[in-house]
Design brief:
Two copies of one chain form a homodimer.
Chain A lengths: L10 H14 L12 H8 L3 H13 L3 E4 L3 E4 L17 H19 L5 H19 L5 H13 L4 H13 L3 H4 L8 H19 L3 H22 L3
Antiparallel strand pairs in A: 1-2
Helix pairs in contact in A: 1-3, 2-3, 4-6, 4-7, 4-10, 5-6, 5-9, 6-7, 9-10
Chain A binds a DNA duplex through helix 3.
DNA sequence: TCTAATAATTGGCTTTACCAATTTTCCGTC
DNA sequence: GACGGAAAATTGGTAAAGCCAATTATTAGA
């Protein structure tokens, strides 16, 4: 079987998509065992290494579970990790409320573990934000950095990942329609002031206050978002 | 080169980790081109297909960019987005700690909004858990339902999604190596007792106590996990 | 009937080989 | 000497066959 096909995308991506389609079409139910690698490769008309590459991609995104010597199993269809994005009913308002709750708790946990060096770093980030705003630029990256840095002080990778993911979802296609009138220079100035309050509480070693300020910041941010959008 | 190595984890995961380490150690800077596949495979002492599997994993998590005919490039370090999948460094211990923090805060938010009907439903779930344990079955689904139901009372879809995802990650292939001796009947009985404490606090309308009990439950769960595994 | 050895199945990894896209090199031309 | 284009070298993409290791199913023996 000599390949004469014009490479459209990487083969493993095409194969992975085919398998996803097979699962979603109901050809294989959740928990079912897929055909053996050798047979499946034959069915799909690709070599076994190529099929394996596709399976690894599917394994990483949680669509299948590979058990050595046993077989390849379709994992609980509901949470394929790809369905995490674009979940129905998740409005930007809920997103910001979730951030307020989660990052509030994270700040409380992180506060006692923040070193003086990190405080200096945070202040630098804040100054950079201020500068970029006055230059007319949108300091989204600095904003992210501020929140991530605090989360990282928990020493818990899972928590900092969640904080980062939630931040990024604000800029996903779903929410992008909102951020138009939201990011004016004035609203950014308010945001910086709230960041200043958080940092101040951290510098005073007041964990509870820092938590409250973080919570308030994201609630305010949500409110600004709402008021900026007339829908 | 005949393989005589005792398979510890999947090879592609080990290789991917090696490459991540190389990048983070500064051996390759952002934007740099890695050695060619053939050479890199030789350096790392693995076959090219195995190296390719690792590269695909790294490509999916955004750590590298593969350009056909050109080479493999290290992508901007900051945005590795290894996020969505459980990145290395995210030990099950960190996962449980993250759950304790997040679900504690979620419980506090949910508690005032829980209706009597939901309380009845939660008690039913708990009784089902008890029954299944005595039958020798593992009540994982009921356990999940208990936690999800509470999260849903926040009325926030993002929060309930997070709680669900974190629960499911415990049973992902990455963490599965831990769950062997963890799920004994005795540990499950302890878990049910802690669930009972949470539900009791909710019935008493004591939101702060419920938060504390939820936090304690997941911390205890983490501890049990650790002690059950002698590594 | 139950248990333990055994055979068949299945994923894990290696080796070799060739194709396709890209980049580099080099030579002819202006 | 500078420019342009074609050939060659480089690099990723894929295929095929084979063996090892873990799991599961089967079968023979107690």
């Amino acid at each position: 079987m000599t390949s004469v096909r014009p490479a459209e995308r990487r083969l493993y991506q095409q194969v992975a998509e085919q398998i996803r389609a097979l699962v979603q079409s109901g050809a294989f139910a959740c928990g079912d065992r897929l055909p053996a690698e050798r047979e499946l490769a034959l069915q799909l008309g690709v070599s076994r290494p190529s099929l394996r590459e596709a399976l690894i991609a599917l394994e990483i995104e949680g669509a299948v579970e590979i058990r050595m010597g046993s077989g390849i199993y379709v994992v609980s269809a509901a949470k394929t990790r790809s369905s995490r994005l674009a979940a129905i009913g998740e409005s930007p308002v809920e997103l910001m409320q979730a951030r307020a709750v989660v990052e509030g708790a994270v700040t409380l946990l992180a506060a006692p573990q923040i070193t003086p060096e990190v405080l200096v770093s945070l202040r630098g980030t804040l100054e950079s934000m201020r500068a970029e705003i006055e230059e007319g630029r949108t300091p989204t990256d600095r904003d992210r950095q501020f929140h991530i840095t605090i989360a990282e002080q928990t020493g818990n990778h899972v928590l900092s990942r969640i904080v980062g993911d939630l931040f990024d979802e604000r800029h996903s296609p779903i929410s992008s329609q909102f951020r138009n009138r939201f990011e004016t220079r004035e609203t950014w100035r308010l945001a910086v002031a709230e960041h200043e309050a958080i940092l101040g509480a951290l510098e005073m070693r007041d964990a509870l206050l820092a938590q409250a300020m973080m919570h308030a910041h994201l609630e305010q941010s949500k409110r600004r978002w709402l008021e900026s959008d007339p829908r």
